[in-house]
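Q: Here's a chain of 397 amino acids. Please give me its 3D structure as tokens.
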Amino acid sequence: MKFESPVAVMRYALDLAKRGVGFVEPNPAVGAVVVNHELELLGEGWHRNFGGPHAEVHALAMAGEKARGATIYTTLEPCAHFGKTPPCADALIAAGITHVETAVIDPAPHVSGKGIERLKEAGLTVNVGLEQAAARELLAPFVSFQCAGKPWVHAKWAMTLDGKISSKTGHSQWISGEASRRRVHELRGRMDAIIVGMGTVLADDPRLTVRLPDDWTGPCRTPARVVVDSRLSLSPHSQLVQTARQTPTIVATVSPESIGLGERESDWEARRTRLEASGCQVWALECGPNDTGLSHHPCLDSLLRKMAAEGWSHVLVEGGARLLGSFFDQDLIDEVHTYVAPKIVGGAAASSPVAGKGKVTISDLDEFPTGRFVASDRDIYFHGIRQSAIDRLPWLP
């Protein structure tokens, strides 16, 4: 294979990197391509699984002796530290690579330009920034987890053509078709946790599990189920509690002292003991604002930081409308997955997907510059990343 331009080589490396999404987290998804002066492909690779060899190692192994005097394109700065694997910068030097094109400097404190510095000290030339915007979009979840201390937050909902997620009675099964529902399970299989509010639990009594066909070869994690439950009222008869010993189930609530329960604190402790005896974990968090300005709901920012402390880098908010509204109002949603079905519900009392305060003017709205619509059988699937979610991360120049 011969590439038309350096940009084409880096785009190919980015496509390779995407193959690792869902398998490598909380590590970054990285691709690498080795080429000669004529831009002919000598070796390629991507980070395939957490703890496994990095992309550069795979690409160098394929190139073999042809790597001497060649150029490598990497979507992220090669590392210069010993982690689960040896430093990639040293491997490039030993292989005889003479030039490195990298899209992004790794802002993680344990790297942060050290790889580039090591390469330059050894006499290699290094250029940074080719296809930087696309690489930042791909690497944003890793940077959020490593540098901002938060998981990357996905939001998902299915709605009708008139923008409703249920009828006026709350009935919602099923708005989307089978193809879309399969996509949702594929998405869940990439997540560390799925978050819902009590309204969703009461309306649907969901299991929130990953159900994929036996021949599925993509990511298939078992995400924890997290219920945001300010009153600690999750029923012991719900499917979530009944299956808590098979699938991790967490109830995110507020501590009794933070809302002044007084003599009712013993009731709260009894409910907590009952849930924990059923296999659930109870996280008592500080209070945070909600869409009415009250403070009797768990702080969502604290919830996300606790999730990151658990090692969770990707979480999915599945609803309902009040919970999604609170996440959007607090600027905590990074990526959206929306399924639009060719159906009409109608009715002013039927629910829309996102409640909360909302934006004041159209000019305040977020952009999804690389978002796209694709067909999902008879539905339409939209997937996009908020540009503001990428821009606020601590990238290095």
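Q: Can you summarize the key feature?
A: The mean pLDDT is 92.
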